[in-house]
Amino acid sequence: MEIIKLIGILIIIVGFLLKFDTIAVVLIAALVTALVSGISFTDFLALLGDAFVSNRLVTLFLLTLPMIGLIERFGLRQQSVRLIEKMKGLTPGRFLSIYMVIRELAGVFSIRVQGHTQFIRPLVEPMTQAAAEAKYGELDEEDIERLKARSAATENYGNFFAQNTFIAAAGVLLIAGTLKSLGYDVSEVAIVQASIPIALIALVMVAGSNILFDRKLQRKYGKKTNLPAQKEEK
């Protein structure tokens, strides 16, 4: 029965629904699929090792862990917030658009900033909120939550649409390897060339969305003009 070879998909679906460990679920699904397909356990380990070696550049993210520790140790979060507060005319939308550019450039050069937990929550989101408060004053809880959501969404957009703009990115290697195994003559360069216009379109759309978001905040709060006086009162 050839359909039994699809059991790995069922294992992944059930594992994700039950919120089991992602890596463990994927490895178990791969092992079961290999065994029902007639591949021995030894051959499975060999295939797994070859795949890891072929995509070893993906593990370079471990080099960023010491950097994250240094950021927390020396208070870069507080310093970055102070820097944002001093910038005149910087709105949360403009700041997130700038971050989108930086995030996509990071994808082009395969520089991993490690996403929400290590970068967005401790650094980007506080800077976005500081830009909003410096421009409009104190925000209500609903708009603060919107800033958090928009900061996280910007990370998702930049990572998703620009991750295949580097020729040795894991996604590019996976797409090229899969298509070649199916008999398609495709190169990694061609995949990158097709990914760059998509990244640029995503950048334009995110920037446009941020402009509309700034206009909503402007209509709701107006321009904050007495920031120094308010600070002195505090």
Q: Can you offer a commentary on this structure?
A:
The chain has 234 residues and is mostly helical. The chain contains eleven helices and no strands. Helix 8 (141-162) runs antiparallel to helix 10 (188-221). The longest helix has 34 residues, at 188-221. Mean pLDDT is 81; it is low at 225-234.
Can you tag this structure with a few keywords?
elongated, disordered C terminus, mainly alpha, 234 residues
Topology at a glance:
Elements lengths: L6 H11 L4 H15 L4 H14 L10 H9 L2 H11 L5 H17 L6 H22 L4 H22 L7 H12 L6 H34 L5 H7 L1
Helix pairs in contact: 1-2, 5-7, 6-7, 6-8, 6-10, 7-8, 8-10
Give the amount of beta strand, in percent: under 5%
Distance between the termini: 74 Å
- Number of extended strands: 0
- Low-pLDDT residue spans: 225-234
- Compute the gyration radius: what is it? 23 Å
- The helix-and-strand class reads mainly alpha
**What is the overall number of helices?**
11
Task: Provide a short characterization of the protein structure.
It contains eleven helices and no strands. The protein has 234 residues and is mostly helical. The termini are far apart.
